[in-house]
Amino acid sequence: MTRKKKITLGCLGLLLAGLAVLSYVRWNVWFGNPPEAPYAPQPTPSRVLLTFGNDGALSRNVSWQCDSVLHTSHLELAADDDTAVICIPATGEVFHSRSGKGAFYVARLTHLVDGQCYHYRVVTDGKASPWYRFTAKDAGTDRNFSFLYFGDVQDTIGGIAHREIMKAWQAHPEVDFAVFGGDLTERPTDEYWNETFRDLDTIGQQLPILCATGNHEYLKYPIRQLERRFSLVFSYFLQSMVGKNQVYSLRFGNLQLCLLDSNRELPYLLQQNNWLEQQVKGDGARWNVVVLHHPIYSAKSGSNNLMQRWAFASTLNDYADLVLQGHEHAYARMTRHDEDGRPTTPVYTVSHCSPKQYRIEFDERFDRFGTGTQFYQLIAVRGDTLQMNTFDAATGRLYDRVDIVKGMHDQVRIVDEGKRIPEILRFTPRPGNKKDAAFADRIRDYKRRKGIR
Protein backbone atom coordinates (compact mmCIF):
# COMPACT_ATOMS: atom_id res chain seq x y z
CA MET A 1 0.00 0.00 0.00
CA THR A 2 1.38 3.37 -0.99
CA ARG A 3 1.84 6.20 1.48
CA LYS A 4 -0.85 8.23 -0.34
CA LYS A 5 -3.40 5.44 0.04
CA LYS A 6 -2.56 5.11 3.73
CA ILE A 7 -3.15 8.82 4.28
CA THR A 8 -6.42 8.66 2.33
CA LEU A 9 -7.68 5.65 4.29
CA GLY A 10 -6.58 7.25 7.55
CA CYS A 11 -8.47 10.47 6.77
CA LEU A 12 -11.52 8.45 5.75
CA GLY A 13 -11.35 6.47 8.99
CA LEU A 14 -11.11 9.64 11.05
CA LEU A 15 -14.07 11.10 9.17
CA LEU A 16 -16.19 7.99 9.76
CA ALA A 17 -15.19 7.90 13.42
CA GLY A 18 -16.14 11.55 13.78
CA LEU A 19 -19.50 10.93 12.13
CA ALA A 20 -20.08 7.96 14.43
CA VAL A 21 -19.35 10.05 17.53
CA LEU A 22 -21.52 12.90 16.26
CA SER A 23 -24.38 10.50 15.52
CA TYR A 24 -24.11 8.95 18.97
CA VAL A 25 -24.17 12.35 20.68
CA ARG A 26 -26.94 13.82 18.52
CA TRP A 27 -29.03 10.69 17.86
CA ASN A 28 -31.80 11.58 20.27
CA VAL A 29 -31.94 15.15 19.01
CA TRP A 30 -32.20 13.98 15.40
CA PHE A 31 -34.35 10.88 15.73
CA GLY A 32 -35.59 10.58 19.32
CA ASN A 33 -39.35 10.74 19.92
CA PRO A 34 -40.65 10.93 23.50
CA PRO A 35 -42.99 8.02 24.27
CA GLU A 36 -46.73 8.55 24.19
CA ALA A 37 -48.57 7.36 27.28
CA PRO A 38 -51.63 5.14 26.70
CA TYR A 39 -54.86 7.14 26.51
CA ALA A 40 -58.56 6.81 25.87
CA PRO A 41 -60.60 9.55 24.14
CA GLN A 42 -63.61 11.16 25.77
CA PRO A 43 -66.93 9.30 25.24
CA THR A 44 -68.66 12.62 24.43
CA PRO A 45 -67.72 15.22 21.78
CA SER A 46 -64.61 17.15 22.80
CA ARG A 47 -61.71 19.11 21.32
CA VAL A 48 -64.03 21.12 19.10
CA LEU A 49 -62.16 23.46 16.73
CA LEU A 50 -63.41 26.04 14.23
CA THR A 51 -61.20 26.70 11.19
CA PHE A 52 -61.59 28.13 7.73
CA GLY A 53 -62.70 25.66 5.09
CA ASN A 54 -61.65 25.12 1.50
CA ASP A 55 -64.31 27.17 -0.31
CA GLY A 56 -63.23 30.72 0.41
CA ALA A 57 -63.55 33.14 3.29
CA LEU A 58 -67.21 32.26 3.91
CA SER A 59 -66.55 28.56 4.45
CA ARG A 60 -65.79 26.98 7.80
CA ASN A 61 -64.76 23.55 9.04
CA VAL A 62 -65.53 22.24 12.51
CA SER A 63 -63.49 19.29 13.74
CA TRP A 64 -63.93 17.31 16.95
CA GLN A 65 -63.11 14.00 18.63
CA CYS A 66 -65.35 11.43 20.31
CA ASP A 67 -64.77 7.83 21.37
CA SER A 68 -62.49 5.36 19.58
CA VAL A 69 -65.02 3.94 17.10
CA LEU A 70 -67.05 5.73 14.47
CA HIS A 71 -70.65 6.74 15.13
CA THR A 72 -73.19 8.69 13.12
CA SER A 73 -72.32 12.35 13.63
CA HIS A 74 -73.49 15.76 12.49
CA LEU A 75 -73.30 19.48 13.23
CA GLU A 76 -76.36 21.54 14.09
CA LEU A 77 -76.27 25.13 12.80
CA ALA A 78 -78.68 27.98 13.42
CA ALA A 79 -78.53 31.63 12.40
CA ASP A 80 -79.10 34.22 15.14
CA ASP A 81 -82.20 35.59 13.44
CA ASP A 82 -83.72 32.20 12.56
CA THR A 83 -85.13 29.45 14.75
CA ALA A 84 -84.55 26.78 12.10
CA VAL A 85 -81.71 24.36 12.82
CA ILE A 86 -79.79 22.86 9.90
CA CYS A 87 -78.14 19.45 10.30
CA ILE A 88 -74.85 19.08 8.42
CA PRO A 89 -73.51 15.51 8.18
CA ALA A 90 -69.96 14.92 9.39
CA THR A 91 -67.34 12.57 8.03
CA GLY A 92 -65.26 10.52 10.45
CA GLU A 93 -62.00 8.63 10.60
CA VAL A 94 -60.33 6.54 13.30
CA PHE A 95 -56.69 7.49 13.82
CA HIS A 96 -54.24 5.07 15.43
CA SER A 97 -51.33 6.80 17.15
CA ARG A 98 -48.37 5.08 18.81
CA SER A 99 -50.30 4.42 22.06
CA GLY A 100 -54.00 4.68 21.38
CA LYS A 101 -56.71 5.49 18.90
CA GLY A 102 -59.50 8.01 18.56
CA ALA A 103 -62.36 8.89 16.21
CA PHE A 104 -62.04 12.28 14.50
CA TYR A 105 -64.89 14.10 12.76
CA VAL A 106 -65.24 17.11 10.51
CA ALA A 107 -68.32 19.01 9.31
CA ARG A 108 -67.92 21.44 6.42
CA LEU A 109 -69.96 24.65 6.37
CA THR A 110 -70.29 26.44 3.05
CA HIS A 111 -72.32 29.32 1.61
CA LEU A 112 -72.41 31.18 4.92
CA VAL A 113 -73.78 34.73 4.88
CA ASP A 114 -71.33 37.58 5.35
CA GLY A 115 -71.88 39.31 8.68
CA GLN A 116 -74.28 36.66 9.95
CA CYS A 117 -73.88 35.33 13.48
CA TYR A 118 -74.34 31.56 13.86
CA HIS A 119 -74.75 29.14 16.74
CA TYR A 120 -73.59 25.54 16.41
CA ARG A 121 -73.00 22.34 18.29
CA VAL A 122 -71.66 18.95 17.28
CA VAL A 123 -73.43 15.64 17.90
CA THR A 124 -71.98 12.12 17.90
CA ASP A 125 -74.12 9.06 18.64
CA GLY A 126 -76.79 11.33 20.11
CA LYS A 127 -74.33 13.02 22.48
CA ALA A 128 -74.01 16.78 21.97
CA SER A 129 -71.36 19.35 22.76
CA PRO A 130 -72.26 22.75 24.25
CA TRP A 131 -73.52 25.42 21.85
CA TYR A 132 -70.86 27.73 20.40
CA ARG A 133 -71.11 30.97 18.47
CA PHE A 134 -69.23 32.58 15.56
CA THR A 135 -69.74 35.32 12.99
CA ALA A 136 -69.06 34.68 9.30
CA LYS A 137 -67.03 37.46 7.72
CA ASP A 138 -65.60 38.15 4.31
CA ALA A 139 -63.57 41.32 3.91
CA GLY A 140 -64.56 41.81 0.28
CA THR A 141 -62.12 44.16 -1.43
CA ASP A 142 -62.60 47.35 0.54
CA ARG A 143 -63.28 46.48 4.19
CA ASN A 144 -60.63 46.93 6.85
CA PHE A 145 -59.78 43.71 8.65
CA SER A 146 -57.18 42.20 10.97
CA PHE A 147 -55.88 38.93 12.37
CA LEU A 148 -53.66 37.72 15.19
CA TYR A 149 -50.42 35.83 14.60
CA PHE A 150 -48.66 33.65 17.17
CA GLY A 151 -45.29 32.01 16.58
CA ASP A 152 -44.29 28.91 18.54
CA VAL A 153 -46.51 28.17 21.54
CA GLN A 154 -45.06 24.80 22.61
CA ASP A 155 -46.63 25.07 26.03
CA THR A 156 -45.66 22.94 29.00
CA ILE A 157 -48.34 20.88 30.72
CA GLY A 158 -50.42 23.30 32.76
CA GLY A 159 -48.57 26.26 31.24
CA ILE A 160 -49.51 29.90 30.61
CA ALA A 161 -50.24 29.88 26.87
CA HIS A 162 -54.03 29.90 27.30
CA ARG A 163 -53.78 33.03 29.42
CA GLU A 164 -51.52 34.80 26.93
CA ILE A 165 -53.68 33.87 23.93
CA MET A 166 -56.87 35.00 25.68
CA LYS A 167 -55.25 38.29 26.75
CA ALA A 168 -54.31 38.96 23.12
CA TRP A 169 -57.83 38.24 21.89
CA GLN A 170 -59.44 40.31 24.63
CA ALA A 171 -57.14 43.21 23.75
CA HIS A 172 -58.16 42.95 20.06
CA PRO A 173 -61.70 41.54 19.95
CA GLU A 174 -62.23 42.98 16.48
CA VAL A 175 -59.90 40.48 14.76
CA ASP A 176 -61.34 38.23 12.07
CA PHE A 177 -59.18 35.14 12.63
CA ALA A 178 -55.98 33.83 14.23
CA VAL A 179 -52.93 32.18 12.67
CA PHE A 180 -50.29 30.02 14.36
CA GLY A 181 -46.86 29.55 12.82
CA GLY A 182 -46.18 25.93 13.80
CA ASP A 183 -44.99 24.21 16.97
CA LEU A 184 -48.40 24.89 18.44
CA THR A 185 -48.02 21.65 20.38
CA GLU A 186 -44.85 20.54 22.15
CA ARG A 187 -44.86 16.97 20.81
CA PRO A 188 -47.31 14.74 18.88
CA THR A 189 -48.70 12.92 21.92
CA ASP A 190 -52.23 12.89 23.29
CA GLU A 191 -51.11 14.56 26.51
CA TYR A 192 -49.64 17.52 24.67
CA TRP A 193 -52.59 17.69 22.29
CA ASN A 194 -54.81 17.95 25.34
CA GLU A 195 -52.71 20.90 26.50
CA THR A 196 -52.99 22.49 23.06
CA PHE A 197 -56.78 22.31 23.17
CA ARG A 198 -56.69 23.82 26.65
CA ASP A 199 -54.65 26.67 25.17
CA LEU A 200 -57.26 27.14 22.41
CA ASP A 201 -60.30 26.81 24.66
CA THR A 202 -62.93 29.50 23.94
CA ILE A 203 -61.04 31.23 21.12
CA GLY A 204 -60.81 28.02 19.09
CA GLN A 205 -64.57 27.54 19.01
CA GLN A 206 -65.47 31.15 18.12
CA LEU A 207 -62.67 32.48 15.92
CA PRO A 208 -61.40 30.66 12.79
CA ILE A 209 -57.98 29.18 13.52
CA LEU A 210 -55.25 28.43 10.98
CA CYS A 211 -52.00 26.68 11.83
CA ALA A 212 -48.93 25.85 9.76
CA THR A 213 -46.83 22.81 10.54
CA GLY A 214 -43.72 23.08 12.70
CA ASN A 215 -40.96 20.61 13.45
CA HIS A 216 -42.48 19.70 16.84
CA GLU A 217 -45.62 18.39 15.14
CA TYR A 218 -43.48 15.86 13.27
CA LEU A 219 -42.17 12.50 14.43
CA LYS A 220 -38.40 12.40 13.99
CA TYR A 221 -37.18 9.65 11.67
CA PRO A 222 -34.56 9.65 8.86
CA ILE A 223 -37.49 10.87 6.72
CA ARG A 224 -39.71 12.95 8.97
CA GLN A 225 -43.33 11.91 9.41
CA LEU A 226 -46.29 14.13 10.20
CA GLU A 227 -49.06 12.27 11.99
CA ARG A 228 -52.39 12.35 10.19
CA ARG A 229 -53.81 13.49 13.54
CA PHE A 230 -52.56 17.01 12.71
CA SER A 231 -54.57 17.15 9.48
CA LEU A 232 -57.64 15.66 11.13
CA VAL A 233 -57.55 18.49 13.68
CA PHE A 234 -56.71 21.24 11.16
CA SER A 235 -59.03 19.67 8.64
CA TYR A 236 -58.60 22.18 5.79
CA PHE A 237 -55.35 20.31 5.04
CA LEU A 238 -57.35 17.21 4.11
CA GLN A 239 -58.40 18.96 0.88
CA SER A 240 -55.55 21.43 0.36
CA MET A 241 -52.50 19.17 0.43
CA VAL A 242 -50.23 19.15 -2.62
CA GLY A 243 -48.77 15.67 -2.80
CA LYS A 244 -47.56 15.06 0.74
CA ASN A 245 -47.11 18.76 1.51
CA GLN A 246 -49.33 20.41 4.12
CA VAL A 247 -49.99 23.69 2.31
CA TYR A 248 -53.04 25.92 2.37
CA SER A 249 -54.11 29.17 0.76
CA LEU A 250 -56.88 31.57 1.78
CA ARG A 251 -58.10 34.65 -0.09
CA PHE A 252 -59.54 37.03 2.48
CA GLY A 253 -60.57 40.34 0.96
CA ASN A 254 -57.57 41.71 -0.93
CA LEU A 255 -55.11 39.55 1.02
CA GLN A 256 -53.73 36.19 -0.07
CA LEU A 257 -52.52 34.12 2.89
CA CYS A 258 -50.35 31.06 2.23
CA LEU A 259 -49.23 28.43 4.74
CA LEU A 260 -46.11 26.40 3.95
CA ASP A 261 -44.82 23.11 5.36
CA SER A 262 -41.17 24.00 5.98
CA ASN A 263 -40.07 20.98 8.06
CA ARG A 264 -39.53 18.89 4.94
CA GLU A 265 -36.73 17.56 2.79
CA LEU A 266 -35.56 19.61 -0.20
CA PRO A 267 -37.61 17.87 -2.96
CA TYR A 268 -40.81 18.59 -1.01
CA LEU A 269 -39.78 22.22 -0.43
CA LEU A 270 -39.27 22.68 -4.17
CA GLN A 271 -42.75 21.26 -4.83
CA GLN A 272 -44.15 23.74 -2.35
CA ASN A 273 -42.34 26.62 -4.01
CA ASN A 274 -43.95 25.74 -7.35
CA TRP A 275 -47.33 25.79 -5.61
CA LEU A 276 -46.50 29.08 -3.85
CA GLU A 277 -45.56 30.76 -7.13
CA GLN A 278 -48.94 29.83 -8.59
CA GLN A 279 -50.75 31.26 -5.55
CA VAL A 280 -48.97 34.62 -5.36
CA LYS A 281 -48.65 35.20 -9.11
CA GLY A 282 -52.13 34.34 -10.26
CA ASP A 283 -54.59 35.46 -7.60
CA GLY A 284 -54.46 39.24 -8.13
CA ALA A 285 -54.48 40.03 -4.41
CA ARG A 286 -53.03 43.35 -3.33
CA TRP A 287 -51.30 41.82 -0.31
CA ASN A 288 -49.40 38.52 -0.09
CA VAL A 289 -48.66 37.17 3.39
CA VAL A 290 -46.76 33.89 3.76
CA VAL A 291 -46.49 31.83 6.95
CA LEU A 292 -43.82 29.19 7.48
CA HIS A 293 -42.17 27.82 10.57
CA HIS A 294 -38.46 27.97 9.70
CA PRO A 295 -37.05 31.49 9.15
CA ILE A 296 -35.70 32.15 5.69
CA TYR A 297 -33.05 34.36 7.31
CA SER A 298 -32.17 32.90 10.68
CA ALA A 299 -31.69 35.00 13.80
CA LYS A 300 -29.70 32.18 15.40
CA SER A 301 -27.11 31.55 12.70
CA GLY A 302 -26.62 32.67 9.14
CA SER A 303 -26.03 29.05 8.11
CA ASN A 304 -29.37 27.77 9.48
CA ASN A 305 -32.30 26.82 7.26
CA LEU A 306 -30.30 26.91 4.02
CA MET A 307 -32.67 24.49 2.25
CA GLN A 308 -35.69 26.65 3.08
CA ARG A 309 -33.86 29.77 1.90
CA TRP A 310 -32.73 28.12 -1.30
CA ALA A 311 -36.24 26.86 -2.05
CA PHE A 312 -38.34 29.91 -1.16
CA ALA A 313 -36.26 33.11 -0.93
CA SER A 314 -36.49 34.12 -4.58
CA THR A 315 -40.28 33.73 -4.73
CA LEU A 316 -40.78 35.50 -1.40
CA ASN A 317 -38.51 38.38 -2.33
CA ASP A 318 -40.33 38.84 -5.63
CA TYR A 319 -43.93 38.53 -4.49
CA ALA A 320 -44.46 38.54 -0.72
CA ASP A 321 -45.24 41.60 1.38
CA LEU A 322 -44.95 40.03 4.82
CA VAL A 323 -43.39 36.72 5.90
CA LEU A 324 -44.37 35.43 9.34
CA GLN A 325 -42.06 32.81 10.88
CA GLY A 326 -41.21 31.10 14.16
CA HIS A 327 -38.90 28.30 15.35
CA GLU A 328 -36.19 30.41 17.01
CA HIS A 329 -37.95 31.49 20.22
CA ALA A 330 -37.02 35.14 20.03
CA TYR A 331 -38.19 38.22 18.17
CA ALA A 332 -36.41 39.51 15.08
CA ARG A 333 -37.59 41.71 12.23
CA MET A 334 -35.77 42.24 8.94
CA THR A 335 -36.76 44.55 6.09
CA ARG A 336 -35.45 43.74 2.64
CA HIS A 337 -33.72 46.52 0.70
CA ASP A 338 -33.68 47.08 -3.05
CA GLU A 339 -30.62 47.64 -5.23
CA ASP A 340 -30.58 51.34 -4.29
CA GLY A 341 -30.64 50.56 -0.58
CA ARG A 342 -34.27 51.58 -0.07
CA PRO A 343 -36.41 49.49 2.29
CA THR A 344 -38.98 47.38 0.45
CA THR A 345 -41.00 44.21 0.77
CA PRO A 346 -41.06 41.64 2.11
CA VAL A 347 -40.76 42.31 5.80
CA TYR A 348 -39.49 39.13 7.47
CA THR A 349 -40.61 38.56 11.07
CA VAL A 350 -39.53 35.86 13.51
CA SER A 351 -41.69 35.60 16.63
CA HIS A 352 -42.80 33.23 19.39
CA CYS A 353 -45.23 33.03 22.29
CA SER A 354 -43.54 30.19 24.18
CA PRO A 355 -42.03 29.91 27.66
CA LYS A 356 -38.86 28.64 25.95
CA GLN A 357 -36.20 31.23 25.08
CA TYR A 358 -33.28 30.65 22.69
CA ARG A 359 -29.94 32.38 22.31
CA ILE A 360 -29.64 34.29 19.04
CA GLU A 361 -27.07 36.20 17.03
CA PHE A 362 -27.45 39.93 16.37
CA ASP A 363 -26.92 40.07 12.63
CA GLU A 364 -26.83 43.61 11.25
CA ARG A 365 -29.32 42.64 8.51
CA PHE A 366 -32.10 42.75 11.11
CA ASP A 367 -33.85 45.95 12.15
CA ARG A 368 -34.53 44.96 15.76
CA PHE A 369 -34.67 42.05 18.19
CA GLY A 370 -36.44 40.95 21.36
CA THR A 371 -35.48 38.36 23.97
CA GLY A 372 -36.64 37.25 27.38
CA THR A 373 -40.40 37.54 26.84
CA GLN A 374 -43.22 36.30 24.56
CA PHE A 375 -44.69 38.20 21.60
CA TYR A 376 -47.64 38.15 19.24
CA GLN A 377 -48.60 40.16 16.16
CA LEU A 378 -51.71 42.06 15.13
CA ILE A 379 -51.78 42.29 11.33
CA ALA A 380 -54.20 44.94 10.09
CA VAL A 381 -55.16 45.89 6.53
CA ARG A 382 -56.52 49.41 6.26
CA GLY A 383 -56.93 50.84 2.79
CA ASP A 384 -53.51 51.21 1.17
CA THR A 385 -51.64 50.04 4.28
CA LEU A 386 -50.77 46.67 5.75
CA GLN A 387 -49.67 47.23 9.32
CA MET A 388 -47.76 44.78 11.50
CA ASN A 389 -47.99 45.51 15.21
CA THR A 390 -45.95 43.39 17.63
CA PHE A 391 -46.98 43.23 21.28
CA ASP A 392 -45.25 41.98 24.40
CA ALA A 393 -47.64 39.16 25.33
CA ALA A 394 -46.85 39.44 29.04
CA THR A 395 -47.58 43.17 29.39
CA GLY A 396 -49.76 43.85 26.35
CA ARG A 397 -47.55 46.81 25.40
CA LEU A 398 -46.77 47.68 21.80
CA TYR A 399 -43.24 46.53 21.02
CA ASP A 400 -42.82 47.07 17.29
CA ARG A 401 -44.76 48.49 14.37
CA VAL A 402 -44.18 48.59 10.62
CA ASP A 403 -46.48 50.07 7.99
CA ILE A 404 -46.27 48.72 4.44
CA VAL A 405 -47.89 51.36 2.24
CA LYS A 406 -48.77 50.75 -1.40
CA GLY A 407 -49.39 53.83 -3.51
CA MET A 408 -50.19 54.24 -7.18
CA HIS A 409 -49.07 51.32 -9.34
CA ASP A 410 -48.40 49.45 -6.06
CA GLN A 411 -45.22 51.42 -5.33
CA VAL A 412 -44.08 50.39 -1.85
CA ARG A 413 -43.12 52.59 1.07
CA ILE A 414 -41.98 51.13 4.41
CA VAL A 415 -42.64 53.20 7.52
CA ASP A 416 -40.69 51.91 10.53
CA GLU A 417 -42.50 53.12 13.63
CA GLY A 418 -40.78 50.54 15.80
CA LYS A 419 -37.44 52.34 15.92
CA ARG A 420 -38.98 54.76 18.42
CA ILE A 421 -39.78 51.92 20.85
CA PRO A 422 -37.03 50.61 23.19
CA GLU A 423 -35.90 47.05 22.53
CA ILE A 424 -36.37 44.34 25.19
CA LEU A 425 -33.21 42.26 25.60
CA ARG A 426 -33.62 40.37 28.85
CA PHE A 427 -31.32 37.51 29.73
CA THR A 428 -29.84 36.10 32.94
CA PRO A 429 -26.87 33.79 32.30
CA ARG A 430 -26.56 30.64 34.36
CA PRO A 431 -23.37 30.59 36.46
CA GLY A 432 -20.59 28.68 34.77
CA ASN A 433 -22.46 28.22 31.47
CA LYS A 434 -20.09 29.28 28.69
CA LYS A 435 -22.81 29.58 26.02
CA ASP A 436 -24.89 31.79 28.30
CA ALA A 437 -21.88 33.96 29.05
CA ALA A 438 -21.14 34.33 25.34
CA PHE A 439 -24.76 35.29 24.67
CA ALA A 440 -24.68 37.90 27.44
CA ASP A 441 -21.55 39.33 25.80
CA ARG A 442 -23.35 39.46 22.44
CA ILE A 443 -26.23 41.37 24.03
CA ARG A 444 -23.80 43.88 25.53
CA ASP A 445 -22.05 44.31 22.19
CA TYR A 446 -25.36 44.82 20.39
CA LYS A 447 -26.54 47.39 22.93
CA ARG A 448 -23.24 49.23 22.60
CA ARG A 449 -23.51 49.18 18.81
CA LYS A 450 -27.03 50.62 18.85
CA GLY A 451 -26.57 52.97 21.78
CA ILE A 452 -29.03 51.10 24.00
CA ARG A 453 -28.63 51.67 27.72
Name the features.
single chain, 453 residues, alpha+beta, Immunoglobulin-like, 7-stranded mixed sheet, globular
Whole-angstrom Rg: 23 Å
What ranges have pLDDT less than 50 throughout 5 or more consecutive residues? 20-27
> Can you tell me the number of structural domains?
2
User: What top-tier CATH class of the largest domain fits best?
Assistant: Alpha Beta
Oligomeric state, counting identical vs distinct chains: single chain
Strand content: 25-35%
Please report the number of helical segments: 9
Q: Please give the alpha-carbon distance between the first and last residues.
A: 65 Å
CATH topology (level 3) name of the largest domain: Purple Acid Phosphatase, chain A, domain 2
Mean pLDDT across residues: 93
The gist of it:
The chain is α+β, with helices and mostly antiparallel strands and 453 residues long.
Walk me through the structure.
Helix content is 25%, strand content 30%. Strand 5 (91-96) and strand 6 form a beta hairpin. By secondary structure, the protein is of the alpha+beta class. Helix 7 (266-282) runs parallel beside helix 8 (306-319). The protein has 2 domains: 46-135, Immunoglobulin-like; 145-420, Purple Acid Phosphatase, chain A, domain 2 (4-Layer Sandwich). Residues 20-27 have low confidence and may be disordered. It contains 9 helices and 25 strands. It has helices spanning 3-31, 161-171, 190-199, 203-206, 228-233, 237-240, 266-282, 306-319, 434-450, and strands at 46-52, 60-65, 73-79, 86-89, 91-96, 101-109, 117-124, 127-128, 132-135, 145-150, 177-180, 209-211, 218-219, 225-226, 248-252, 255-259, 287-291, 322-325, 331-337, 343-350, 368-370, 375-382, 385-392, 398-406, 412-416. The protein is globular. The strands form 5 sheets. Strands 12-11-10-22-23-24-25 form a 7-stranded mixed sheet, with helices on one face. A 7-stranded mixed sheet has the order 15-16-17-18-20-19-21, with helices on one face.
